[in-house]
Design brief:
It is a single chain. With 270 residues, the protein is an alpha+beta fold. The protein has two domains: 94 residues, no CATH class; 118 residues, no CATH class. The protein has a five-stranded antiparallel sheet with strand order 4-3-2-1-5, with helices on both faces. Strand 2 and strand 3 form a beta hairpin. The protein is globular, with a radius of gyration of 18 Å.
């Protein structure tokens, strides 16, 4: 099922059963920037001009989670050009952050704000410091700069088939009154690894999921407290990834940086 773009109505109702898929961002939506196509496997340093150009889209966004999703997708796209996630984060910290600071444009500052929200701890620190220096040079901040990366934690829940083969775990967050949920599909038949990841912007998501699950005797639904959700998510991230379908691979790669940033946020608070 293709999920709906941010703010749009779901294309299909939630499906019953252990593969009840919630609705997130649609990678096939022409309104979504395809950064993976823009940055094919080449030396990461060779993409910097393109990154700074594409970052102009960040100035058009008014929702911080959309900016985070763009940044997470960018990190995923660049990962194919690096020798691993750690190598990529080191390269972004040591090269792209200084390049963005030197550019000293509003889009460069927006890019730094995004990296300060969804990067590795070292990248977040470097990007945050560079962003602060640009502000002192009167570079214009994006409208979401003051909140990005620090949403409030809201409802957390999970549901699974009664046999415990697969589990969908969702953690709700909110920027002001605007809610979103970060969800993972966990395959316990593959050691608890993450099969799929998606983000949904729908205030009724939890209630809709609980209602649909209650109609299916083969599905178990349960609310979780934030510490419990953190532990489950931590175990899943530590277990690794096991996407199989092409759309699952795309989802996992595109949302990996945001998922880990949200896990770090939960770990800090709980």
């Amino acid at each position: 099922m293709n999920p709906a773009p941010p703010g749009a109505a779901a294309k299909d109702p939630p499906r019953r059963g252990p593969w009840l898929i919630l609705h997130g961002m649609d990678a096939d939506d022409p309104g979504e920037p395809d950064v993976a196509r823009l940055f094919a496997p080449v030396a990461v340093e060779e993409t910097y001009a393109g990154v700074l150009t594409e970052a102009r889209v960040l100035r058009q966004l008014d929702d911080p989670v959309d900016a985070e999703l763009w940044g997470s997708d960018l990190v995923g796209a660049l990962a194919s050009s690096a020798a691993g996630q750690v190598s990529l984060m080191d390269t972004l910290t040591g090269s792209l952050v200084p390049a963005a600071e030197a550019a000293a444009t509003p889009e460069a500052l927006a890019l730094l704000r995004v990296f300060a929200a969804v990067g590795s701890p070292a990248l977040r620190a470097a990007a945050g410091q560079a962003a602060a220096r640009l502000v002192t040079r009167d570079v214009a901040d994006p409208p979401w700069a003051g909140t990005v990366g620090a949403p409030r934690v809201r409802d957390c829940w999970h549901y699974a088939d009664v046999g415990g083969r697969q589990e969908s775990l969702s953690v709700g967050f909110a920027y002001g009154e605007h809610q979103h949920a970060v969800s993972v599909l966990i395959d316990h038949g593959r050691g608890g690894k993450i099969r799929d990841t998606w983000v949904t912007k729908d205030d009724s998501l939890r209630a809709d999921t609980e209602r649909e699950a209650s109609r299916d005797p083969l599905v178990v639904f349960e609310m979780l407290d934030a510490p419990g959700a953190r532990l489950r998510l931590q175990r899943a991230v530590s277990a690794g990834e096991c996407p199989e379908q092409p759309d699952q691979v795309d989802d996992v790669v595109a949302h990996r940086a945001l998922l880990r940033a949200r896990l770090d946020l939960l770990t800090t608070r709980y």
